[in-house]
C-alpha cells in the first residue's frame, strides 16, 4: 500500500511538473507573439526575461477576471501588458491631484449649470457628428490633462465653426507654466485659461507632440488658430448637470485611472472597482445605453491599442453621486462665442536688412559687423535660431547655449539637486541641418 501511494505521489507531481512546463512554454510563445504584434524589443535577455514574468502575472490577472463570467467588461493583454502596475501608474496618468483638490472646493463664477434647451436626448455620440479628432497617445509623459483640454476645445470649435482642427498638446506642455507642470501633471481649467489669455492655440500639425517637455516656442505661441471665450465647471457630483453638458458638447473630466483593471481594459461597460481619488484626465464624447445599462463614451489618450480603439464605455447612473472612478467630481468645458482669427498670411522671406533676405523659416545671422552695424549676413536653416558669436554656427531656440569648441548646442536647467544637460550637434559653418540628439544627466 505504501509503495502504491509513493508511486501515485510521484506520478502526480511529475504530471504537475509537466503541466507547469507546458503552461510556461505556452506563455513564452504567447509573449513572443505579443512582442511582434506590439513591436516590443528589449535591451538585454535579462530584461526580456523580467518582462516575460511581468507579462505572465498580467496574463493570470486577465484570465482570472475574464473567467469569472459575471463582469460587464473584459480585459486583454494590450500594449501595457509588459508593465507592472506601479510602472503603468508612474507613466500614464497626470491629473494634478493638488490642483484638482483646490478646484473641487471653489464656487467662483465658472461654476454653474449647463445651458441646455429642450429635452436631453437618450443618447449622443459626438464622433458621429464629426466633433472628435483621432485618438492620440500621450506616451510616457503625464500630460493627460492637455489631451483632455484640447479635445474639449476641438469639440466646441467644430460645433461653433463647423471645422474640426486637431490642436497642439505640445504648446500646453511647453508653455502653460502658470499652474500646470507639463509632463508632471496639470489641470484642464488652467489649460482653458491659458488659451484664453494667449488669445488662442496653435494646431497639432504646426506644433507637434513629442512626448516630452521643451522650451516654449514663442513663435508658434503667436500662431493662434482656434480661440475660446471662457469655460464652465459642472457642479460637483451632479450627474444630471454632467449629462446636460455632454448633450451640448464634449466635456473634460477627471477620473481615477490607476486601477489595474483600467490598465488592461479591453471592451464592455467598465464598472470598477476603482476609487474616487482623481489622477487621470479624459474626455466624455457621448453617452448611451446597452441592454438597459447606461454608460458614458470616454475618449482616452493612450493610443488606439488600448480599450475599444482608444475608447471606453464607463457605467453611468451607478447610484453613487461621485460616479464610477469619480467621473462626476471634476468636469468642465470651454465656451466659444466669437469666431476664430483669420488664417495667418503665408510666411515669406526673412528680411535681414534693406538689401539682404533669408528664406522662409530661416534666421538671419550676422557674420561681420563694425560698431553694431552688420555688413555680412548668413542664413541659418532654423526658425527663431540663436546665432553663435563665432559667426559660423547657430543653435535652435530651445538649445540656446553655443559650445563652438565641441560643435554642440546646450540647454541647461536645474531639476532638484540635478543639473540636466542636453546637447545637440550645432549647425556647420554653412548653417546646415542638424545631426543626432545626445542626452545625459550630471549629478
Automatic annotation (TrEMBL):
Stretches assigned to the Cathepsin propeptide inhibitor domain: 31-88
Residue span, Peptidase C1A papain C-terminal domain: 120-335
Family membership: Belongs to the peptidase C1 family.
Name listed for the protein in its UniProt record: Uncharacterized protein
Organism domain of life: Eukaryota
Entries under Gene3D superfamilies matching the protein: Cysteine proteinases, Granulin
SUPFAM superfamilies registered for this protein in UniProt: Cysteine proteinases (SSF54001), Granulin repeat (SSF57277)
Limits of the Granulins domain: 352-409
InterPro entries: Granulin (IPR000118), Granulin_sf (IPR037277), Papain-like_cys_pep_sf (IPR038765), Pept_asp_AS (IPR025661), Pept_cys_AS (IPR000169), Pept_his_AS (IPR025660), Peptidase_C1A (IPR013128), Peptidase_C1A_C (IPR000668)
Signal peptide segment: 1-23
Record keywords: Disulfide bond, Glycoprotein, Hydrolase, Protease, Signal, Thiol protease
Annotated CDD domains: Peptidase_C1A
Amino acid at each position: 500500500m505504501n509503495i502504491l501511494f509513493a508511486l501515485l505521489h510521484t506520478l502526480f507531481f511529475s504530471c504537475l511538473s509537466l503541466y507547469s512546463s507546458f503552461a510556461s512554454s505556452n506563455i513564452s510563445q504567447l509573449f513572443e507573439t505579443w512582442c511582434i504584434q506590439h513591436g516590443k524589443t528589449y535591451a538585454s535577455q535579462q530584461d526580456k526575461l523580467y518582462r516575460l514574468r511581468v507579462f505572465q502575472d498580467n496574463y493570470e490577472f486577465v484570465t482570472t477576471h475574464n473567467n469569472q463570467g459575471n463582469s460587464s467588461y473584459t480585459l486583454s493583454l494590450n500594449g501595457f501588458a509588459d508593465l507592472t502596475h506601479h510602472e503603468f501608474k508612474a507613466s500614464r496618468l497626470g491629473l494634478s491631484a493638488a490642483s484638482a483638490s483646490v478646484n473641487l472646493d471653489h464656487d467662483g463664477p465658472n461654476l454653474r449649470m449647463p445651458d441646455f434647451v429642450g429635452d436631453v436626448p437618450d443618447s449622443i455620440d459626438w464622433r458621429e457628428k464629426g466633433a472628435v479628432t483621432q485618438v492620440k497617445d500621450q506616451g510616457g509623459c503625464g500630460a493627460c490633462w492637455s489631451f483632455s483640454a484640447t479635445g474639449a476645445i476641438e469639440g466646441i470649435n467644430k460645433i461653433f465653426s463647423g471645422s474640426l482642427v486637431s490642436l497642439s498638446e505640445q504648446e500646453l506642455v511647453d508653455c502653460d507654466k502658470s499652474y500646470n507642470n507639463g509632463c508632471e501633471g496639470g489641470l484642464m481649467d488652467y489649460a482653458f485659461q491659458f488659451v484664453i489669455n494667449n488669445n488662442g492655440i496653435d494646431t497639432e500639425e504646426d506644433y507637434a507632440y513629442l512626448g516630452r517637455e521643451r522650451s516654449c516656442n514663442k513663435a508658434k505661441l503667436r500662431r493662434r488658430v482656434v480661440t475660446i471665450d471662457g469655460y464652465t465647471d459642472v457642479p460637483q457630483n451632479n450627474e444630471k448637470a454632467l449629462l446636460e453638458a455632454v448633450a451640448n458638447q464634449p466635456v473634460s473630466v477627471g477620473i481615477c485611472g490607476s486601477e489595474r483593471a483600467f490598465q488592461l481594459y479591453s471592451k464592455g461597460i467598465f464598472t470598477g472597482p476603482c476609487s474616487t481619488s482623481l489622477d487621470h484626465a479624459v474626455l466624455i464624447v457621448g453617452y448611451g445605453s446597452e441592454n438597459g445599462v447606461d454608460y458614458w463614451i470616454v475618449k482616452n489618450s493612450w493610443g488606439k491599442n488600448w480599450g475599444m480603439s482608444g475608447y471606453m464605455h464607463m457605467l453611468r447612473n451607478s447610484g453613487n453621486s461621485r460616479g464610477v472612478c469619480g467621473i462626476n467630481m471634476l468636469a468642465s468645458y470651454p465656451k466659444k462665442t466669437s469666431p476664430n482669427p483669420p488664417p495667418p498670411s503665408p510666411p515669406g522671406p526673412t528680411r535681414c536688412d534693406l538689401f539682404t533676405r533669408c528664406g522662409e523659416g530661416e534666421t538671419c545671422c550676422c557674420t561681420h559687423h563694425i560698431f553694431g552695424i552688420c555688413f555680412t549676413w548668413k542664413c541659418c536653416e532654423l526658425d527663431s535660431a540663436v546665432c553663435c558669436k563665432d559667426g559660423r554656427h547657430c543653435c535652435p531656440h530651445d538649445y540656446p547655449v553655443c559650445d563652438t569648441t565641441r560643435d554642440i548646442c546646450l540647454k541647461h536647467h536645474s531639476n532638484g539637486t540635478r543639473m540636466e544637460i542636453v546637447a545637440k550637434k550645432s549647425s556647420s559653418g554653412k548653417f546646415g541641418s542638424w545631426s543626432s540628439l545626445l542626452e545625459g544627466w550630471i549629478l
